[in-house]
TrEMBL record:
A Pfam match: PAPS_reduct
Keyword Transmembrane helix: no
PANTHER family in alphabetical order: FAD SYNTHASE (PTHR23293:SF9), FAD SYNTHETASE-RELATED FMN ADENYLYLTRANSFERASE (PTHR23293)
Biological process according to GO: FAD biosynthetic process
Name of protein: FAD synthase
Keywords attached to this entry: ATP-binding, FAD, Flavoprotein, FMN, Nucleotide-binding, Nucleotidyltransferase, Transferase
Cellular component terms per the entry's GO annotation: cytosol; mitochondrial matrix
């Protein structure tokens, strides 16, 4: 983690002036120590996948959200520099401009080989498999607390008519606060919308600021939205989302 921290200090200096990213201050606390077991668990899941599949047979499903940003960073640390990371991004019908820009920034920062699709997630994955039959497994940033994800296994084949591939869930046992502790303790950039009262990001038409983060700011003398990492009741994480989105590859709502 020391090398990763030094690396991200360099990244922070480069991106600090960007209006699309927020680079939070490093916070040292006991909660960071609690990440150790979660991180070891995640690395073991990834190592297991790497013994089953070749690098060109695995891809990351990346949409610029907080969870897959954490997963991207962990995968990047575990992947040799000579081995570019493959990822797939499915653009929603009405995406946030800030989120689109953040995805582009991550492509440059991590050297991602990103395949871009639009429309329905299931159809996009069908296109992916049709274009590249070598793809046999996909990394997903789902957590067990996500909708319809409580019974998932770390490695689980697709079902219900989805394109045949192995789904890999390295972050299943992570909590909402684990995700934010990892991002902030490692000074990782994340999409700036999370600092504007959004706790979960989806399509612009079905995503709004989380009302539970609205609070009075004494310095500004007005009501403002606190950042996502200050959410206390994690059950309200998706309180800002209309749960009628398209089905996701995890079996939950996207």
């Amino acid at each position: 983690m020391k090398l990763a921290s030094q690396f991200w200090h360099t990244v922070c200096r480069h991106y600090r002036t960007s209006r699309w990213l927020h680079i939070p201050p490093v916070e040292k606390s006991e909660s960071n120590d609690q990440l150790r077991d979660k991180l070891e668990y995640t690395e073991e899941v990834i190592k297991r996948a790497m013994t089953l599949y070749k690098p060109n047979e695995m891809m990351l499903s990346f949409n610029g959200g907080k969870d897959c940003t954490v997963l991207l960073d962990i995968l990047a640390r575990m992947t040799p520099p000579s081995m570019p990371l493959g990822a797939v991004y499915v653009k929603s019908a009405n995406p946030f401009e800030e989120l689109e820009k953040f995805v582009d920034d991550c492509v440059q920062r991590y050297g991602l080989q990103l395949r871009r699709y639009e429309g329905v997630l299931k159809v996009a994955f069908e296109q992916l498999i049709a274009e590249d039959s070598q793809v046999k497994a996909i990394f997903l940033g789902c957590r067990r607390s996500d909708p319809e994800s409580c019974n998932l296994y770390e490695l689980e084949p697709t079902n219900n008519g989805w394109p045949a591939m192995m789904r890999i869930f390295p972050l299943l046992e992570w909590s909402y606060h684990d995700i934010w502790n990892y991002l902030r303790s490692n000074n990782l950039p994340y999409c700036c919308l999370y600092d504007q009262g959004y706790t979960s990001l989806g399509d612009r038409s079905s995503t709004r600021v989380n009302p539970s983060l609205l609070a009075y700011d004494e310095k500004l003398d007005k009501m403002t939205y606190r950042p996502a990492y200050e959410l206390e009741n994690v059950r309200l994480e998706r309180f800002n989302r209309d749960e009628h989105g398209q089905a996701s590859v995890s079996g939950s709502k996207q």
